[in-house]
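Priority: medium. Attachment 1 of 2:
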């Protein structure tokens, strides 16, 4: 679903969720395989959204689900760094810190 979301989200949703290419998300770039030949993630994303509607998940709830998926991707990009005082700090490219 992560790959589908990244491929199929329109410009407005991409901006709202701060989505970037799959290769820029730690959870997705570890295998080095971002795309599968013959798999159309855009088409699958649209089918998934349609199926969610069929089972009664309206557009507003779908958007909330997509927010949670994006949150998981962004959390995977958090990096913990040691601070000079022996404590840990957290920085992320999501927030530009």
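Attachment 2 of 2:
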């Amino acid at each position: 679903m992560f790959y589908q979301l990244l491929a199929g989200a329109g410009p407005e949703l991409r901006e709202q969720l701060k989505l970037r290419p799959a290769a820029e998300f730690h959870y997705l770039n570890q295998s080095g395989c971002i795309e599968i030949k013959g798999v159309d993630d855009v088409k699958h994303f649209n089918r998934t959204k349609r199926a969610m509607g069929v089972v009664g998940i309206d557009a507003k709830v779908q958007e909330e689900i997509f927010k949670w998926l994006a949150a998981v991707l962004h959390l995977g990009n958090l990096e913990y760094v040691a601070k000079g005082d022996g404590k840990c700090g957290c920085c992320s490219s999501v927030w530009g810190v």
